[in-house]
Structures are given as structure tokens and as C-alpha cells.
Design goal:
By secondary structure, the protein is α/β, with parallel strands linked by helices. Helix content is 32%, strand content 24%. The radius of gyration is 22 Å and the shape is globular. The two termini are 42 Å apart. One of its GO terms (molecular function) is nucleotidyltransferase activity.
């Protein structure tokens, strides 16, 4: 074996035969294989339907007990707008296992995101592998939630190890699967509505990040998309308004709170291409700091099931809509 530790970074949503191929190759080359499982702090969505614990179980159950004992799975949180924090999380997780001892490397293939790690971790050697049947988890999730078969006519289960097949069959009987399937249909309907457009549409939204006395104003979403998740007040820009007016209007419609422009402290644009599953969406976030010790009364309305003030210490990425947790931590420096 050439390595003491080989690192494989991915989301494994779900763990498929391509992932299994990489892990088996890593086991031939290293004493210990470290799987860094991304999006560990994300809520259940079509993109990230399974928890860290569920993915870890899928992975370890694909191997016999002795082999699985050489595989270590660690959760890695998303930090969409803070690459330095992500790098720190990766480094800390690996150091926790390796204790900076022995030879460590990264394994993957250059046609996926793992090639990006070469420039980020120059101290680690890179083991390049060929792509396994060009497998991607995205079409597998589409088949699971709505389309049953893949484009080549084969079954989703043909691309999965037995452990993943068994888990996905059981998961179909949960309320979480039903909600995700509904969300998938909502997303497809949104995308189909714009299929005839001459160019792919770009949507413009505005959100309000409002803080007072160590609390942040949030809503609980009530529609099919992101139902039950926490979000900043906000929405789509009307044709006759500015972005600032949109943020103020949406806050009033969803929470009943009237904001004074004098409390505006900062504005920032967030435009990660995949930040919304419905389509390319660019948002401007307006950060307001309110005065006073008594929190204003708020009440959910419009498409907000409820509005509430949350202590900043209780922010939880697993409950937040889209990239709102990353936006909030970025703008507040948390």
C-alpha cells in the first residue's frame, strides 16, 4: 500500500457504483480510506435528500465488516460563500483522523469536482482514476423521485450497490419521501413553464436579513417548495420596483413588520449558479439592524406559514431554505 490515508470527498446522494469503485480502488492503495461527506448541515431537498447518518450507513453496509473497519466517514458542512471556512473544515477533519502522521492523498478523477482539490491541498498527493461509466448522482435522484428509469432505459437500481438499493426502497415508505416527491414535481413544473423561452431565464429576488437584540427575523415557508424550512423574508422582484423596495415589501407582506430604510447597514449580491433548484436565481440581500431591546411583534402571512424571531445562537443549517444559512453566516461573520 502506497498511502496511510486516502481521502475521497463527495456528497454521495446516493452512494452509487461509481462511488463504490473509487472506494475499492482506495482500499487497494491505503490502510485507511477517509470519506468526507459534504452537505452534512443541509436540510432534506431534492439535491440533498439523505442525512449524513443515512449516507454513512449506505456506504459502510456496502462492504463486509472487516473492510468497513478501514473506512472512516466524517461530515463536512456546506459553507457556500466562505471557501476559507470550507478548507478549514476539511483540514480539521482529516487531521482528526491522521494526527498529521503518515502519507496522505486524495483520490478521484479529473472529470469531477475532485480535480479542484489539487490546487487547494498541494501537500497531498493525488490519485487519478477513470470515470466509472460516467455515473452521476443527479440523474439517479431524478429517476428516484419522478422518472423511474434513466435516459438509457435502465433502472436506477442497476447503478447502485445492494446497500443503497435496500435503503432507497425503505425510504420510499416515509413521509419525507412523499414531501420530496411533491417538491420534485413543483420544481419540474417551474422548469417546464419556461421551456419555450428563447433563452434560459434568470430570476431576480430580494431578501431582508433583519437583526435585533441578538435575534434574527425568519419565516417558515408554507408552499410546496421548501415547505417547513426557515428563510429570510423575501421574494421575486416586481417590474415596477427597486430591489430595496422589494425587500421591504416582501418583509411587510410575510411578517407584518415595517422596516425603515435608515436601519439599512449593508447590501450584498449572491449569485451562485446552483443556489436555487427552480432555476438561475440571483438575490440581493439587505441587512437591517433594528434598535431597541423589545422585539417587534411579527406574524406570518402571504406564503409564510409563520414569522418568528430566532436567537442567533440557535441558527441551524439543517432547517434553512436553499443557501440562506450560508448567506446569513457570511453577512454576519458567524
Amino acid at each position: 500500500m502506497n498511502f496511510d490515508h486516502l481521502i475521497f470527498i463527495g456528497r454521495f446522494q446516493p452512494f452509487h457504483l461509481g462511488h463504490e469503485f473509487v472506494v475499492k480502488e482506495a482500499l487497494k492503495r491505503a490502510k485507511t480510506v477517509i470519506l468526507l461527506i459534504g452537505s452534512a448541515n443541509s436540510p432534506r431537498t431534492i439535491k440533498n435528500p439523505f442525512t449524513f447518518d443515512e449516507r454513512e450507513a449506505m456506504i459502510l453496509s456496502a462492504f463486509d465488516e472487516q473492510t468497513a473497519s478501514r473506512i472512516v466517514c466524517l461530515p463536512i458542512d456546506d459553507t457556500l460563500y466562505n471557501d476559507h471556512k470550507w478548507l478549514q473544515n476539511i483540514g480539521s477533519a482529516v487531521r482528526f483522523i491522521t494526527q498529521d502522521a503518515g502519507k496522505t492523498g486524495v483520490i478521484g478523477h479529473t472529470k469531477d469536482d475532485s480535480s479542484y482539490y489539487l490546487s487547494l491541498f498541494p501537500a497531498w498527493d493525488y490519485v487519478e482514476l477513470p470515470s466509472f461509466e460516467n455515473l452521476s448522482a443527479t440523474p439517479l435522484r431524478r429517476a428516484y423521485f419522478g422518472e423511474s428509469t434513466l435516459k438509457d432505459g435502465t433502472s436506477l437500481y442497476d447503478k447502485l450497490p445492494k446497500s443503497s438499493q435496500d435503503f432507497l426502497e425503505k425510504f420510499k415508505n416515509t413521509s419525507e419521501f412523499t414531501q420530496l416527491q411533491t417538491e420534485y414535481q413543483h420544481i419540474k413544473a417551474c422548469q417546464n413553464a419556461w421551456q419555450a423561452a428563447p433563452y434560459p431565464p434568470t430570476f431576480i429576488t430580494a431578501d431582508a436579513l433583519i437583526v435585533q437584540s441578538g435575534h434574527i427575523l425568519l419565516i417558515e415557508r408554507g408552499g410546496d417548495y421548501g415547505k417547513g424550512l426557515w428563510a429570510m423574508a423575501g421574494g421575486f422582484l416586481d417590474a415596477d420596483e427597486t430591489l430595496l423596495h422589494c425587500a421591504i415589501r416582501e418583509t411587510y407582506e410575510e411578517t407584518g413588520l415595517k422596516i425603515d430604510k435608515k436601519n439599512l447597514k449593508a447590501v450584498q449580491t449572491f449569485d451562485a449558479p446552483d443556489r436555487s433548484l427552480r432555476g438561475r436565481t440571483i438575490t440581493s440581500v439587505f441587512y437591517f439592524e433594528l434598535d431597541g431591546k423589545t422585539l417587534p411583534q411579527v406574524q406570518g402571512d402571504d406564503d409564510a406559514k409563520r414569522a418568528f424571531w430566532l436567537p442567533l445562537a440557535e441558527l441551524d443549517g439543517t432547517k434553512m431554505f436553499e443557501d440562506h444559512y450560508s448567506i446569513i453566516t457570511k453577512m454576519l461573520g458567524l
